[in-house]
Amino acid sequence: GQQVMQIPQYQHVQEGEDFTTYCNSSTTLSNIQWYKQRPGGHPVFLIQLVKSGEVKKQKRLTFQFGEAKKNSSLHITATQTTDVGTYFCAVTARAGGTSYGKLTFGQGTILTVHP
Amino acid sequence: DTGVSQDPRHKITKRGQNVTFRCDPISEHNRLYWYRQTLGQGPEFLTYFQNEAQLEKSRLLSDRFSAERPKGSFSTLEIQRTEQGDSAMYLCASSLRGAGYNEQFFGPGTRLTVL
Description:
The structure holds 2 protein chains of 2 kinds. Helices cover 0% and strands 57% of the residues of chain A. By secondary structure, chain A is an all-beta fold. In chain A, strands 2, 4, 5, 9, 10 and 11 form a 6-stranded mixed β-sheet that branches. In chain A, β6 and β7 (61-65) form a beta hairpin. Chain B is mostly beta strands. Chain B is 0% helix and 49% strand. Chain B has no helices and 11 strands. Chain B has strands spanning 5-7, 10-13, 19-24, 31-37, 44-50, 53-57, 65-68, 75-79, 88-95, 105-106, 110-114. In chain B, strands 2, 4, 5, 6, 9, 10 and 11 form a 7-stranded mixed β-sheet that branches. Chain B has a 4-stranded antiparallel β-sheet with strand order 1-3-8-7, with no helix packed on it. Chains A and B meet through β5, β9 and β10 of A and β4, β5, β9 and β10 of B.
């Protein structure tokens, strides 16, 4: 099955600094999703990327999908204490034009923000 | 609250006992997923349903695990003869099947502790 490697495992930043997490696959991905899980919470969908080279922005968050569709990144500009949590990338398998349901998650990047 | 709900939120049991968890998805969602998450890891796929049909079950899932979605609405996950290694957060998610789009909405989870 598909696997994705996510780095770094941990990231500690001062409030106001930027943060980036990366997700890499050895195979071409049909799409990639990003989720955020607050401490003690459950994963919450952030975004889905489908097209090669796609870039999407949500306020201070910028998501990129690589040209070869084998990697993705999430960048947060000027972190705030509300950004604390674990950020996961997740991929689905696709066959014959049908998007399968199950998600395969990366290991996640735990972000702590010091005020 | 129209989100995904799970019951119970916490379950403590002794090794060898059977446990059953319930998930109520978002009402119009036809897909329902079960994941397991241990500390420091991303959610791991267990099984998923489209309506009442169980479409896929993880090969990692032992025969002690069974899931049902009898009327295509709520689902139950049963673990028989629990083992200490079953201790984890069990997450349910639901989604609406659409062409290539698979945002999943997660419930708060059931935390299982096997003594």
